[in-house]
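Tutorial handout. Part one gives the primary structure; part two gives the three-dimensional structure as tokens.
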Amino acid sequence: MKHCGSIAQPRKYAKPVSRRTVFFVSDQTGVTAETLGHSLMTQFEGLEFRPVTLPFVSDIDKAHEVVRRINRAGEQTGLRPIVFSTLVQDELRDVVVGANALFLDLFSAFVGPLERELDTRSTHRAGRAHGIADLAAYTTRINATNFALANDDGTVMAGPQIEGFADAILNGTPMLGANIDDGVAAIRALVSIARSVETGKQIKLQDATGTV
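Part two.
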């Protein structure tokens, strides 16, 4: 007996999209690695990344723990992680570079050519990146950047925001987050950064004017 009509095709489901994990590894706060790394990653539109900062990697044990976290992220997502590193000490870099990831050494990429040009061996001492002449201006820029990131719900969730998010899911309480004042303050911080970069001077948040 013949059957009439078309045969139903099996339904195809879209595969879940995994976000590639991007690690920022440093022996200090990780701000330099984050700044350079984020600047590079923004050049790739349409791709989603999960940023993870691993600061104060100051000994071999911590370096091995970093490798474990990087490898675990790759196994969980099925995507090779990307690592931006500003580790200064060679022995720590030698450990982390062994992770199953694309390892981008932001420190040696510039120090090597500088050593050859200046015909001088660098100190390779951790924390020297912050020993610049105008420490106050540098600190202001970094604090402003951190403030802007911490108050941007689309970029970073601060501790209280994470707790509020969990409370909303588990207990049904209203979600609490950044308000209009936080948004204005974040924009003011970005303007302050822009003015500081343009002039090379310390710009207080309350004195910031103009556009980003």
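Part three, for discussion. The radius of gyration is 23 Å. Residues 132-212 form one domain.
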